[in-house]
Every structure is written in C-alpha cells, then in structure tokens.
Amino acid sequence: MEKGKLGIRLSFYAVAAFILAFLGYSTVLALLAGFVLIVEKNEWASRQVIQAFFLCIFADIVNGILNIFDFLYQIPLMGSVWGTAISVIDGIVSLVVLIFCIMALVNTAKGNEANVPGLNGLANWAYGIVAPKVNQAQQAYYGQQQFNGQQQFNGQQQFNGQQQFNGQPQFNGQSQQFNGQQQYQQPEQQNPNQPQ
C-alpha cells in the first residue's frame, strides 16, 4: 500500500476511521476526515474515511431519534416497555455498525475498498464519482436487434452479410421469384355475401 505525504500508510487512516466509527467518536472522526481530505488529498483514503464518518453519523442519527421520545420513560407502565424497546433497537444498531466496521477493517487493511453497503455509493457521490446510468429505453431497443452477423428487423427481413432477394420476399400476399420466372399468387376471392 502506498504511503501518504507524511510517510504514513494510507490504509492506516481508513483503519483508524472505522475504529473511531465503531467507538462512536464522531468529533475525532470528523477531524480525521478533514485531515485526510485537506492534507493527504488521496481519493481512496478520503472515500474510506467518508464511509466511516457516514457510518458513525448513521448510528448518531438513530440514537438522536430515539432520544426524542425520552418523555415516555415518565409513564409508569410504558417506561419499562419503552426502555426495553430502546435497548433492543440500540443493540441492533450497534451490532450492524460492528459488522460493517469489521468488514471494512478487513478490506481496508488489505488496501481494498471498504464497500460498506449503502455508504459506498454515498461516499462516491460525496466525492463526486458518478456511476453511469443505463437507459432503459436503449436496453429495450438493443434487445430487439441481433448483431452477431445477422440483423433482424421485426422478423421480416434478414441481412446476413448479403441481401437475400433470390428467395421469396413477401409483399401483401403476392410472391415473386427473381430467378427468371415470375409467379403471381392470386388473391383470395372474396365472398360476395360479405360486406366490404
């Protein structure tokens, strides 16, 4: 792994960021993110630190939303139920953060992308990396044509390198052969009793 401007390996910043994210030190993590963005100016390290920062912010936002409902502790019977619910939700969030941090620590220690689900795209967006979008209309259009040496246009004509008009192209029920003979098929006789 390459070293930064100060001689410190860039993976160290990513590993330290995810350790700080697990511990919940969002202020120290914000300082580390600012340092990496301003001083090191390395795209890979910046994206990893931003992912760790967003992971820490996610846990802080969930805890902040749960703390809004602290007044429910004052209700005698509801207080214990609410306390249990808060503990379960907080435990689930901590477990998710721990799993994502371990996954990211293993990846970044090897010098790979952290690939935290959901936060990888957010970090790329924050850093200005935009993935090309596939246009659904083009996908449907290309699905109708075959470009393996043979093009089909609505199944009516085939051009496989040469135009095949020595066969029998069909024009509104009439068939013509161009090998010296012409054959015309008579259109079907209409029943005089049928209205036109």
Given the structure, what is the number of helices? 6
Write down the overall geometry: flat
Tell me, rounded to a whole number, the average pLDDT: 76
**Which sheet architecture does the biggest sheet show?**
2 strands, antiparallel
Which strand order do you get reading across the main beta sheet? 1-2
Helix content: 40-55%
Task: Compute the separation of the termini in Å.
Answer: 82 Å
Task: Find the count of extended strands (DSSP E, 2+ residues).
Answer: 4
Q: What proportion strand?
A: 5-15%
CA-atom Rg in angstroms: 33 Å
**Strand-pairing-aware structural class:** mainly alpha
The SSE string, one letter per element, is HHHHHHEEEE
Low-confidence stretches: 174-178
Can you walk me through this structure?
The protein is mainly alpha-helical. The chain has a domain at 10-127. 55% of the residues lie in helices and 5% in strands. The strands form two sheets. Strands 1-2 form a two-stranded antiparallel ribbon. Strands 3-4 form a two-stranded antiparallel sheet. A hairpin with a 2-residue loop joins strand 3 and strand 4. The model is unreliable at 174-178 (pLDDT under 50).
